[in-house]
């Protein structure tokens, strides 16, 4: 594996990110990965990119985008006014899974959270993703809470 590069996503990266988001059983049901990426993804990217508390990351191996995640930095009063890092939309390109790219991506993300003053990092994962659960357990994350969602 070539040295991985972690960087802020650009508009040009959106088709590759959407393709990764759609590349599994759950993602294929909720994402629209077509030959021409729908405009709503570009609109969403513009909003994310304009927010200083958001970091949409892509991982490159040479010129190929091989992974992504979104970091949100959440300031708050709880826990003595500490800041949290929220990790969302973690994906590695299907044919590159198992190469420890995810571990490298999380090492980068945790360091980014530390550098932004976060005292903890949290994430949610779908109950239907047992491989992700094993991965997060291996990284030291603990399933300490029950998450709820209400779709609007």
Automatic annotation (TrEMBL):
The lineage of its organism: Bacteria, Pseudomonadati, Pseudomonadota, Alphaproteobacteria, Hyphomicrobiales. It comes from the Bacteria. InterPro entries: Acyl_CoA_acyltransferase, Bact_Acetyltransf, GNAT_dom. GO terms for molecular function: acyltransferase activity, transferring groups other than amino-acyl groups. Keywords: Acyltransferase, Transferase. Residues 4-152 form the N-acetyltransferase domain. Transmembrane segments: none annotated. It comes from Aurantimonas endophytica. SUPFAM superfamilies: Acyl-CoA N-acyltransferases (Nat) (SSF55729). It holds the Pfam family Acetyltransf_1. This is GNAT superfamily N-acetyltransferase.
